[in-house]
Amino acid sequence: MAENIRIEVKDVNFYYGKKSALQNVSMDIKKNKITAIIGPSGCGKSTLIRLFNRMNELIPNTRLEGRINLDGKNIYSSKIDVVEVRRRIGMVFQKPNPFPKSIFENVAYGLRVNGIKERKYIAAKVEKSLKNAAIWEEVKDRLSDNALGLSGGQQQRLCIARALAVEPEVLLMDEPCSALDPTSTRKIEELILDLKKKYTIVIVTHNMQQAARIADYTAFFMLGDLIEYDVTDKIFTRPSKKVTEDYITGRFG
Amino acid sequence: MIQREKVYKYIFAGLAFTSLIFLIGITIVLFKEGLPMFKEVGLFEFLGGKYWYPTYEPPDFGILPLILGSFLVTLGALFICVPLGVGSALYINEIATGRQKTILKPLIEILAGIPSIVYGFFGMVVVAPFLQELLGLPVGQTAFTGSLMLGIMATPTVCSISEDALSFVPKSFRYASFATGANRWQTLTKVIIPSAGSGISTAIILGMSRAVGETMTVLMVTGGAAVIPHSIFQPVRTMTATIAAEMGETVLGSNHYHALFAIGLILFLITLIFNIIAELISRRFRIKLGLGR
């Protein structure tokens, strides 16, 4: 196994009840790179990243075949603690979903549930995470205010801070900008580019310009099949499959 | 066409405002018939008086024993309906499988549909003798028996409103919590319950208001002694039971008659306050979760 691979997806099939959502997907996610997953609605892109932190287990009647390895270890092995997987692989959702708690408590939440009690450590970690998520300057004077009072873009950066606080290795982002305006989107994109130094990022996006702007690698899915996966430049300039070209040039989707 | 729409509008407006008319009517009657009492007996003497002997000569109109009776029975009922109601709501919402949910919820709601006289009858014939035997009491009809029956009666209210509150908590909170590495218990205690907290408080207050106002059951199972209770295992008489038991025997327009209305007035104010508090809390809850008013 190559050194620079963080997540390996091997022959994955996934079913919601009897309906197949992913077929024979195999791909490697590279360390400290941004991997974008694109494709028309219902192509299985969200399903795929929700497999990476075992969130699909919360939906009853689902079935997974194949393996998903994190640093060479199968995260679905019975020896692996799901809480540990979710701590190592953080997630940011499509709609900002801060808890109805203070800004501080939102970020501290992951630390607290992981059993950290020391106040100074928590305070330092919260500050660092908010700085990493590029929102510290905007909220430092009102950490005890309710997080729901922030704007949508701020809420999403707060959610990124919340995910970063537990020091994950991988950050999954499920269309993180789809509910945001262009200015907030730009801020989040800058942030993602910056976070790549420390984290491996997998981002699902509907927005092809966004994938082209920020991703190192891009995977194109359709109806549960991985059609093409390559360096972003190549996908957008010289795709090897006709259907990829049709999609990125806007002929459908 | 437009004319017809207007007619519909007025018909429905009329229906909607009918309940308001009843509310106003009842309030007016309560005040009109209750207030004359306070010309005879001062408000504090009425509320704080230790003796309720309305038919003696001279009569005593002190309702403190009745207030304490109501208070004791309601408090006891809370200790039963809160764990039962909130506990079942948590189970139904968080743990129960789809099939258990479809059985449990309607079953609990059937409890709410049983007439209170049936509860009273059951309490009188089954529960009271059982408790008398079990605890070695001189009589089985006590405040505790009343609390037990009222607690069970208020459980469906508490359960069903708490369950609504829990199900209003957005799924996204749950996902966010799991995604940071929280387990099910942590998600429940640190995110779900605090988010539904004011909704659950509303449920408890409404359950309480149901218990305070309940009449038939307490009349049948609490023993009916209008004395200041010293223990929950003594017979008591609540405000509601007093009105129900005595209204038939009083002379229209007499002091006793006005006294009963004054008790009704005070009950009305108590439940009104409960309902206002419940409404305020639930409004805050909806705003907190961004559900609008």
Structural class label of chain B: mainly alpha
Write the CATH fold name of chain B: MetI-like fold
For this entry, what is the oligomeric state of its chains? heterodimer
Per CATH, the class of chain B reads Mainly Alpha
| Biggest β-sheet strands, sense, barrel of chain A | 6 strands, mixed
- Cα(first) to Cα(last) distance of chain B is 33 Å
Instruction: Show unreliable segments of chain B.
Output: none
Tally of DSSP helical segments of chain A: 10
CATH class of the domain at 5-97 and 169-248 in chain A: Alpha Beta
How many E strands of chain A? 10
Model regions low in confidence, pLDDT < 50 over at least 5 residues of chain A: none
CATH architecture of chain B: Orthogonal Bundle
The main β sheet of chain B shows up as:
2 strands, antiparallel
Large-scale geometry of chain A:
globular
CATH architecture type of the domain at 5-97 and 169-248 in chain A? 3-Layer(aba) Sandwich
Number of helices of chain B: 12
What is the number of domains of chain B?
A: 1
Q: What is the helix/strand order of chain B?
A: HHHEEHHHHHHHHH
